[in-house]
Amino acid sequence: MEKYEEFIEFEVELIDVPLKEGFGKDVTVNWKFFDNFNANKTFWTDSNGLEMQERRLNFNPSYPWNAEHKDTQNISSNFYPVSSAIAIRDNEKKVQATIMNDRAQGGSADLEKSTIELIQHRRMVQDDNRGPKEILNETDSKGNGIKVNAKYWLQIFNMSVD
Q: According to the model, what pLDDT value does residue 66 have?
């Protein structure tokens, strides 16, 4: 099998996120791999600009996973900062899929089997009481939600070839 050196570029243009229902919204960009890709609930993120950190779903060595709150923690506790890349590997097939992004974002993988997702934009109508005590509701000069454009690059490569 050949080593892949190609990248696929995705350019995503997101118009403003409407808040008509009165609820905040997160908009994610998702990549789903359909060839029985098995990430084994493990992924890697570059959250510091220096090295890829291994992440496992529903596990963090810095704090205990509270199974009692699994329904409310499942999504938020599995998202990590992604400075420049997020990756999943199928160790049996010796294949890695890496998504590189053009800005820091929150990301996760394998929440849905064989999927990588990055938060491209979020808009809130009230403070979530988990941060700087402010509403995430950036608007333009007309009061509309801002547009968010982003670029992503996908590389899939064979890990068994030097």
A: 67
